[in-house]
Write a structure and sequence with these properties.
The chain is an all-beta fold. The protein contains no helices and five strands. Strands 4-3-2-1-5 form a five-stranded antiparallel beta sheet, with no helix packed on it. It is globular, with a radius of gyration of 10 Å. The two termini are 13 Å apart.
Length: 63
Amino acid sequence: MFAAGDTVLIVACEDDPRAVGRTGRVLDEVPPGPLTNGRWTVDRISLLIAPVLVHSHEIRKIS
């Protein structure tokens, strides 16, 4: 499970393929629900990449 502030590696991203291979930070303070279709919000990926929505299997916790 992930928590707000966790640094994650994006291994796949249906929302924006440019984010794959980059690291970001989880924004969600609670597990994702129906509003996001069960996807986590990951931010601070790059100046040119907006926050993305990813499924749990698309990210790996690195810290």
